[in-house]
Amino acid sequence: MRKLLLALAALTLSGCGYNDFQRLDEGVTAAWSEVLNNYQRRADLIPNLVATVQGAADFEKSTLVELTNARASVGAIKATPELVNDPEAFARFQAAQTQMTSALSRLLAVAENYPQLTATKEFGELRAELAGAENRIAVARGRYIKAVQEYNILARSFPTNLTAMLFGYKTKANFTVENEKAIAAPPKVDFSKPAAK
User: Fold this and answer.
1) Structural contact between residues 154 and 22, judged by C-beta atoms closer than 8 angstroms
2) Over the stretch 94-112, which tens digit does the pLDDT of each residue have?
3) Is residue 28 part of a domain?
4) What is the largest CA-CA distance in the chain?
5) Residue 46 in contact with residue 130, Cβ under 8 Å?
6) CB 92 within 8 Å of CB 77
7) Is residue 39 situated within a structural domain?
8) What is the pLDDT of residues 69-101, one digit of tens each?
């Protein structure tokens, strides 16, 4: 009888998913670290970019101030591994990173109006480094999204959801699109207007 109870307990525990939660939680933490690493790499490029752009005569100062403020707001957020367990903190982190991306995009767009700046070797190298950083961020975010998906499926599936409730495992926050409705709407194209010359 005792052997039967031990065998039943072993089967029950092996199917509870506790070890899977540990493995997937570590996967989410590792993927999150990669995301943070790549965001930090991008943030580290900002002072060099600002210094290079400031050298351009009469460059629009408001654009530089906006970028500097965006970097400061990103730096003010404590991006710890626990952030993925707090949806509001995660949303603030994502909003700050979106603000940084937007400020960088505006700076690069405005820089196009300064051919003497865009022709410099330093600006070209920084722009290439930023493009590489953005690509690495996209890859890291993709890995994080996949890791969170696997974890959240485990946390919500039966019977492992019982283990999640018992041990307090909650679903983790994931990246979202800021304005999903805007992306879902097809672009409006009007061929009836002649092209500007």
Assistant:
1) no
2) 999 999 999 999 888 888 8
3) yes
4) 90
5) no
6) yes
7) yes
8) 898 888 888 888 788 888 999 999 999 999 999
Residue 149 phi, psi dihedral angles, 5° rounding: -60, -50
CA distance 14 to 18: 8
Distances (CA, A) of 38 to 52, 129, 196: 22, 12, 40
Structural domain containing residue 79: 18-171
- The SS3 assignment for 154 reads helix
CB 96 within 8 A of CB 74: yes
- CA 21 to chain centroid: 23
Question: E strands of 118-189, at which residues?
Answer: none
Cα–Cα dist 9/6, whole Å: 5
The tokens for 171 are 């679903």
Q: Quick check: is 131 in a domain?
A: yes
pTM equals 0.78
For residue 102, the one-letter residue type is S
Structural tokens at position 93 = 């982190």
Q: Which residue has the tokens 């019982």?
A: 162
How is residue 162 written in tokens?
Answer: 């019982």
For 52, the token pair is 């290079």
Peptide bond into 159 cis (omega under 30): yes
What is the domain count for the chain?
1
